[in-house]
## 1
Amino acid sequence: MSPSHPPTTVLVVDDSPETLQVLVEGIQEEGYQVEVAASGKEAIQKAKDHSFDIVLTDLVMPGMDGLDVLAHFTQAHPETIVIMLTGYATVETAVEAMKRGAFDYLTKPAKLDEILLVLERAKEFISLRSENVLLKSQLQERYRFDKIIGQSPAMQAIYRVIERVARTDTTVLITGESGTGKELIANAVHYNSQRRERPLVPINCGAIPEELLESELFGHEKGAFTGALKDRKGRFELAHQGTVFLDEIGDMSPKLQVKLLRFLQERTFERVGGSRTIEVDVRIIAATNKDLEKEVETGNFREDLYFRLNVIPIHVPPLREREGDIPLLVHYFLRQHCLKKGLPAKKIAKEALDYLERYEWPGNVRELENMIERMVILSESDTIGVSDLPPRIRKRIPSPAPDRIEIGEEGIDLKQILEDLENKLILEALRKTGGVKNQAAKLLGLNRTTLIEKLKKKKLEVPA
Ligand SMILES: Nc1ncnc2c1ncn2[C@@H]1O[C@H](COP(=O)(O)OP(=O)(O)OP(=O)(O)O)[C@@H](O)[C@H]1O
């Protein structure tokens, strides 16, 4: 353990004060924080107020003996390490103590050196154990959102919201362009919540005609409409104690918006064609790629429903705005799709990856994944190169220079011309991206720091 850790605490339990005196001084000198107890009873009392890393106890004591002390600590303070001190006559009992969970034993009269050695080992054990706990929790951390790839600040902020919101039953509204991973996030919220053992029931409100959607959501009674041959539970009932994921909520008809609003307010509903009021306990996660605020303004979406849904908003940014996530996703999908197809793992050439990083990805992660899947199948070599990329991604910004430039007798200043051209292109990229250096750098095929260095060197002003 490094010196910055708090000192290891040791409780020495012995009924003979002389032994105690010598032991305590010696152990303290080595940097341990030592407490003493003259009986098992006192030890238990002390452990109520302090937590000890290590208990060093005599085996034979009047009243509670060392085995009793051991039994108490393994029960009440399983983290504490117990070491037995024993005379030759009771070595067998000490061995028995080891079987019952003691860390080690020492025979009396124990030399201080021996004691320190055992303490050192115990300390090492404690340190390894806590490292192990840490590693395990880091693993959990990693696996918690194992299907969502991305380390950009934007994604990290989303992970933090997921974590916080998963612990509650609050309604969540996930917005973002198509293919940004909204459904994946809805899944993460559900599977990290206390409802994880109960169903997550998704429904795409945009894909189902209104009449059908109503009965899908709320269920129907026999005879409610032609074709309703028997009673049927809706998704809300099926999701009882779980989560309902209402995808494409922005496409819901005004009539259903009213019914959904009532459900959100009262948590009760009637099946289509039914009069019995049904109560269910579900958490609602809704998602849309529409700008709901705009939809509210134009009267397509009820404002009151919008407020009910937008309790915790999660906005998923488009892929082109997630700094550094594209290479992570590319490698992840390459691995996944090669594995799925039983192919040896393929790599991607740096230059090809550069193109992918510069592309705008209007279809976001879905488009990226589909493209990688196709390339895995189509590319014949084990490294994907620029020629394997679809033409739309390979296209370059058209060169602003004409095909042929005359050079007169007087010659030209090549350096100056190139410098001017470079300046113009940099300014154009900055103008196009509203001065956002990150995006401008991408347009220019530079990394951000290179662009910033160039701006500084050339003393260029970022256009307003
Ligand atoms: N961060 C990510 N890491 C790994 N895979 C992702 C990520 N984001 C999206 N995907 C994958 O991309 C595809 C599209 O994601 P998803 O369906 O969650 O998007 P969406 O925003 O709900 O899309 P839509 O609005 O069109 O319904 C899925 O196959 C999903 O697994």
Note: The longest strand covers residues 81-86.
## 2
Amino acid sequence: MLVVEGLVKRFGGFTAVSNVSFKVDQGEILGLIGPNGSGKSTIFNMLSGTFPPSAGSIKFEGSEIAGLAPHRIINRGIGRTFQIPRPFRRLTIFENVELAGFYGQGSHSRAKADEAAEKALAMVGLPTDRRAPVDGLGAAGLKKLELAKALATSPKLLLADESLGGLDEAEMDQAADMLRKIRDELGITIIWVEHIMGVLMRVVDRVMVLDHGEKISEGLPSAVSSDPKVIEVYLGTDADATQAAAAEKRR
Ligand SMILES: Nc1ncnc2c1ncn2[C@@H]1O[C@H](COP(=O)(O)OP(=O)(O)OP(=O)(O)O)[C@@H](O)[C@H]1O
């Protein structure tokens, strides 16, 4: 479904992403992990059109999309969430999601946008009542709203950026289960960028690990969490390694 080859992003003289290649198959959940500043968000920004790659190719369903504007990429069927939710606070929950629905359709039909918004809100478990305000949503609610906005664009591929930041442990488990439900019930392929490796490992089919803009490991969660390179650069501590191994056992 997605084939990325030789992706590079330079900011001035600094290389944030260095010759990264990977594939994502239809129906898969790929986890993308790595320490702070390893290039995860920069890859998402290139996949979603926020900025163009310095070099490399991004083929989605066989067509080159590298360098296309964000609205064109959304119309092709790639939706994304953002690490820090920034909804329009003067709009209701429904209106925020409806607006995203307008973007995704390309047809600008209100009826279609409303239908997409209702389905997306029901999927993530937020009120479909059109007057429900954004104010009052906690961290978990705002993450759900972020996800509903992305779903309302009717994506075939969802780029989920750090869905678990700011959540407690029970909320993290629910958010991880939600991503799996989105894949299982809607058939949406997912790339999931996350810091919190333990929960991610329970849900993803494959993991790719970045460090300093380079891919250092890729494979099944069990293989990646015991890869010495990953333990050295990413896990860092025995406690983290134990947590990841325990999560893997629970799968
Ligand atoms: N617009 C930009 N201009 C200059 N440097 C940037 C820009 N965006 C990112 N970088 C740099 O590129 C590197 C990779 O950043 P990126 O945000 O992709 O990492 P990340 O793995 O997503 O980190 P985090 O987990 O902290 O979000 C960092 O060193 C960052 O400072």
Note: The radius of gyration is 18 Å.
